[in-house]
From TrEMBL:
InterPro entries: MobA-like_NTP_Trfase, Nucleotide-diphossugar_trans. It comes from Cryobacterium breve. SUPFAM superfamilies: Nucleotide-diphospho-sugar transferases. This is Nucleotidyltransferase family protein. The lineage of its organism: Bacteria, Bacillati, Actinomycetota, Actinomycetes, Micrococcales. Residues 10-188 form the MobA-like NTP transferase domain. Pfam families: NTP_transf_3. PANTHER family: MOLYBDENUM COFACTOR CYTIDYLYLTRANSFERASE (PTHR43777).
Length: 207
């Protein structure tokens, strides 16, 4: 197992209204009745992320009540994106600000949107170094300058692991509904192939 310099936090982006889906995805559930939000929190926790930060926005009170019903408050850190209507970047900024403000700042965050309900523990673990990486070279340490992204059939996806040395610039530059994509394009993260683990597909609509 690798030696972590500090905790690696999970960061769930769940503030959007889900206009194409028809409801906030923080309230969505799978065919088995499991809430996407609860499943994602569990996946990150099981992979070794601690703490897990959840960013809420649209219908935040309802989403927070659900977390409370499942006994996830106060173990989950809730961040509020009051400007959630701006798009994904608002969630990202709120989450990174919350990570920065934690009493013991994590060395990095593993970021996933709530609308990837097929996310597996093994995928997260590979990205944060608790499982062998896609090249078969074994585990590797996560540090403050880490910038790492999962890919599936050569398609970039989630999780994205971002070391804390990048947070301030991301908070200052992320705008609109693009999240971290422009930053990742210009900084060239290490891509970790996870095609053997899952599809990495997100869910935009109910069709």
């Amino acid at each position: 197992m690798p030696t972590f310099l500090a905790p690696i936090a999970g960061l769930v982006l769940a503030a959007g209204a889900g206009s194409r889906y028809g409801m906030p995805k923080a309230l969505a559930q799978g065919d088995d009745g499991t809430l996407w939000l609860v499943r994602t929190i569990g996946t990150l926790t099981d992979a070794g992320c601690s703490p897990v930060i959840v960013v809420l926005g649209a219908q935040a009170a309802e989403a927070r009540a659900l977390l409370d019903d499942f006994g996830l408050i106060p173990s989950v850190v809730v961040a509020q994106a009051d400007d959630w209507a701006e798009g994904l970047s608002a969630s990202l900024r709120a989450g990174l600000r919350q990570a920065t403000a934690l009493p013991s700042a994590p060395i990095a965050v593993a970021i996933v949107p709530v609308d990837v309900p097929g996310l597996r523990r093994s995928t997260v673990a590979r990205l944060i170094g608790t499982l062998p990486d896609g090249t078969g070279t074994g585990t590797w340490e996560v540090g403050p300058h880490t910038l790492r992204q999962a890919e599936f059939d050569a398609r970039p996806g989630h999780p994205v692991v971002i070391g804390r040395a990048h947070w301030a610039e991301l908070i200052g530059s992320a705008t609109g509904d693009t999240g971290a994509r422009p930053y990742l394009r210009s900084h060239e993260p290490r891509l970790v192939d996870c095609t053997d683990l899952e599809t990495g597909l997100d869910v935009d609509t109910r069709d």
